[in-house]
Design goal:
The chain is an alpha+beta fold. It has a single domain, classed as Aminopeptidase, CATH 3.40.630. It has a 6-stranded mixed sheet. Helix 4 links the parallel strand 3 and strand 4. The longest helix has 15 residues. The model has no long low-confidence stretch (mean pLDDT 94).
Length: 162
């Protein structure tokens, strides 16, 4: 994942973000979230032993970002009142637009539903927004995610009923 994530971001974000925004986001936002892995809510897709995609869902409050963004405890959500989080989706550029992201997304939605959640929420990058719209997500808001170096990354908060 440490190789897939930067490759995915660098290639698939071209034309949506500047090179400076991409490199800053790789450093400050994008990366593995070991809590998702520990919670067993993270999925990977492999073809002939090669990692081609990954993504997960969370039952915790964190809405986006890898381990490098965490500064405090990450409490559990109340499935009756709060949406689960869809997080940390990355696809190998050679496998983009071939159903990998959609398959992982549906696995996440099904697992969140099975855990008692009625909705899922996420923060999409601009290149990811079309995928999530295709799978029934609606835009809640657009905002700029601030990074420690003063740069910002335009993103889209979205939600879907399960």
């Amino acid at each position: 994942m440490r190789e897939l994530i930067p490759l995915s971001v660098r290639v698939l974000s071209r034309g949506f973000y500047s090179d400076a925004q991409i490199e800053s986001a790789i450093r400050h936002i994008f990366g593995p979230d070991t809590q998702l892995i520990a919670d067993r809510t993270y999925f990977v897709a492999a073809v002939r032993g090669v990692l081609v995609g990954c993504g997960g869902w969370g039952r915790r409050r964190t809405l986006f970002g890898g381990d490098q963004m965490k500064t405090a405890e990450d409490p559990l959500l109340d499935p009756k009142a709060e949406p689960a989080r869809v997080r940390a989706f990355f696809v190998h550029p050679d496998w983009a637009r071939r159903g990998i992201g959609g398959a992982i997304l549906e696995a996440c939605a099904n697992a969140a539903r099975d855990a008692g959640f009625g909705r899922v929420e996420l923060v999409a990058t601009l290149p990811g927004e079309p995928l999530y719209r295709t799978f029934g997500f609606d835009v809640l808001e657009r905002f700029e995610a601030a990074m420690p170096d003063g740069r910002t990354l335009p993103v889209v908060r979205m939600i879907r009923t399960l």
